[in-house]
């Protein structure tokens, strides 16, 4: 078997860079490119964080800067995540290894993320797209090219039990809250190749993962990569430590699932879903057709007279409901050690 080809779309904060560190150091993975998007930090800061992450591992990959705000013209969704990740998303320690450079804020190409995604998907139709932030870039690519598609798409985001992590909208997951309209587009257009790692998984299994593995083990290795990851995750580790919790894996689960779903996923659920776009408290929440009655009709399609899309028959979307934290943790340790294969 050849290497797994990945393209990563990210908002570039602590768990994102841990996930990217796994990908760029995995012996069975070829990271083709990384695109950045608004989210927990600005898209400019996300771009710099990715560049810094790659330098920590001593690798070079194309970085394309993407959307600075959601499709609907509101301000970028930078909420109280500063408390968890710091203002720069990596704990506000720019002098620590590798020191932040002015050049980190400059993407490797002037090509914007959405068009880069379209081009790469055409050049590598067998590649997998891994989305770790709001889905604005992917939705824009779908709007620009109706035939845009990767072989597989893995998304960290959303929910199905209404378990959220946004302070003022507690039934909504952060990435989908960051651009609900984009999330709706992606779920409806790419459902047949989509795997979602929802917030429910992290919320319901996180405490068990803390018991199953030593969440700090990968930080204790005497390597430059471990040093960087320790710096990047210091803020969330300290914040969660104050309430007796560990900084468990999140985006890392999505990345590892994209690399080898059979090894990582313990349980998968299939739902017909859409995204709530109008609720005062629920905009961005994933709506599940639990009774299988809403979106099973065949007469879906564009209704020209009304000038809008009718939501009709929707395919099932795959949700990872349980995961093997031991595999994720083993790969995290291997990544900071830059261990050769097999993993």
TrEMBL record:
Residues 7-298 form the Inosine/uridine-preferring nucleoside hydrolase domain. Signal peptide: none annotated. The lineage of its organism: Eukaryota, Metazoa, Ecdysozoa, Nematoda, Chromadorea. This is Inosine/uridine-preferring nucleoside hydrolase domain-containing protein. Belongs to the IUNH family. One of its GO terms (molecular function) is hydrolase activity, hydrolyzing N-glycosyl compounds.
């Amino acid at each position: 078997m050849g290497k797994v080809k990945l393209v990563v779309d990210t908002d570039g904060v602590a768990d994102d860079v841990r996930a990217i560190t796994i990908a760029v150091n995995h012996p069975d993975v070829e990271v083709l490119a990384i695109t950045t998007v608004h989210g927990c930090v600005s898209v400019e800061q996300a771009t710099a964080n990715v560049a810094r992450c790659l330098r920590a591992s001593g690798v070079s990959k194309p970085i394309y800067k993407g959307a600075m705000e959601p499709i609907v013209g509101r301000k970028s969704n930078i909420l109280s995540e500063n408390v968890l990740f710091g203002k720069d998303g990596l704990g506000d320690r720019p002098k620590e290894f590798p020191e932040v450079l002015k050049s980190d804020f400059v993407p490797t190409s002037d090509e914007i993320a959405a068009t880069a995604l379209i081009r790469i998907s055409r050049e590598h139709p067998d590649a997998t797209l891994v989305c770790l932030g709001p889905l604005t870039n992917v939705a824009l690519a779908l709007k620009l090219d109706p035939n845009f598609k990767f072989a597989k798409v893995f998304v960290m985001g959303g929910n199905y039990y209404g378990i959220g992590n946004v302070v003022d909208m507690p039934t909504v997951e952060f990435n989908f809250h960051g651009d609900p309209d984009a999330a709706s587009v992606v779920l409806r257009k790419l459902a047949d190749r989509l795997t979602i790692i929802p917030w429910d998984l992290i919320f319901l299994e996180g405490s068990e993962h803390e018991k199953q593995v030593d969440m700090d083990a990968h930080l204790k290795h005497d390597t430059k990569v471990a040093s960087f990851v320790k710096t990047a995750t210091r803020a969330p580790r300290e914040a969660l430590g104050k309430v007796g919790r560990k900084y468990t894996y999140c985006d890392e689960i999505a990345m590892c699932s994209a690399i080898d779903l059979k090894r990582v996923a313990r349980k998968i659920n299939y739902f017909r879903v859409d995204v709530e776009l109008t609720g005062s408290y629920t905009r961005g929440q994933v709506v599940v057709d639990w009774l299988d009655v809403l979106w099973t009709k065949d007469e879906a399609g564009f209704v020209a007279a009304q000038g809008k899309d009718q939501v009709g028959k929707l395919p099932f979307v795959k949700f990872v409901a349980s995961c093997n934290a031991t595999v994720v943790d083993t790969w995290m340790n291997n990544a900071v050690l830059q261990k050769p294969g097999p993993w």
